[in-house]
């Protein structure tokens, strides 16, 4: 039955007159059978017309055959056309490609242009027809077929170009012919480069003519045609740069030199010439010029050292927006110290950074822009939403926002609070009541540094926070941490149990130093020297210290002095210590110093090997002695 449905003709009238339904079969197969003539105008069928395959590719073989028949091209050329338009075929029917080919050929466009610019076929046929119609309206064009390179531009750009060309009066009838006359270049070649720089038509006519005159006075016409984008610069800037280039020892001046950074005209530029090489745009030397220029400019603007400037440069991956952003922020009153600390924001695009600063300027109760600069690290839409939420919220008797409220209650600088809030944006989304209640609870029972370093605890309801704090306070007293609020119950119970065990060993107000004095029989000075020699011993749980001491003194018969000489043993894994001591006992070794037990696995194995070799040598000497 399924086989029959798959091969049933699309125009099967016998099925279309009956109420036929099979629930288990993909509805797309039946829709092909019931499709009407109006709904199936394309003669190339879909592979599968089901909803799940709505974006599937059309049958490749049929399309390639059609393209080959239309263009009389090779298999390689048809493959190239297919690959270039493959994405479009996920949306449009293949008839789009064949219709566009017929449309282009009807307007006299050569097949060569289609082969070289296959993506043009992905343009909707109606839009492509509009482009062709507009290009025919360009003034002073004898053969509109020459304008085919402009088909790659957007319809909006072509429309703007035609509108401007109609309104202006220029020698040659349009800017293409004008450049061709002034440079002595053939019109098709001008069109080729003009099409890739169509924005040149957005330049005011006076500026266009003035810049062209300036460039032709100093540059070769062929180079100007290839770099028409230079005409978009201000005439004064072009004159200034060309004058500087004329006074340099360069053999040739090219248009790209007008666009490189000013540092390109300095000492680095001359060093390259001294080596007998002419500079090339975007080479390693040009990047060195740019880096040197940015570093020196940053040192001047920020008043920082060369080392600090290089750190900022590397952190921002050598962004081209660095200097512009620093100058902009300084104008807005942002301190150099703030920019050095928040260097990551300097790699933001100038337009985006300006928009973010303007958004921050709308923040109510803003005391100083430097307080909220870390928020510029967020995306623009995030920042707008946060500022809007802060403006719609009132905190405290004096109207303020969360940043300043947190800062005033904890004693931190607002910029420090903002930096942490920018990393934990949920602090702006927590309900107001929860935020206030949790902050009050934390300030009553925890250190402010711990609170700011671990903001995740604010995500829990005040009820849970209060309950966790009460449980922890019963055991730990004042030594509470935010992680105790958010950790699983099992972890909290284990931590509290360890605290109880440690308390049972140490007693009230007893420190690890006093425990050493009592357990090892040392005076306080000797116990302190142990801690000074190995400070990390302070961080080891007292229960573990007890187990290690019990094992060494009671089971292995070591002396307290052995532990005092090698306190690292107290931090070492007891399981590993037991394993190594058992292995050493098997080979008849009882180390005088415990230090070997604390060595790395490689060092320990070397010691065992040397011990075995030494033992073997002594045995041989004894046998033959």
Automatic annotation (TrEMBL):
InterPro entries: MTERF, MTERF_sf. It comes from the Eukaryota. One of its GO terms (molecular function) is nucleic acid binding. Signal peptide: none annotated. GO terms for biological process: termination of mitochondrial transcription. GO terms for cellular component: mitochondrial matrix. Pfam families: mTERF. Keywords: Transit peptide. Belongs to the mTERF family. This is Mitochondrial transcription termination factor. It comes from Anopheles minimus.
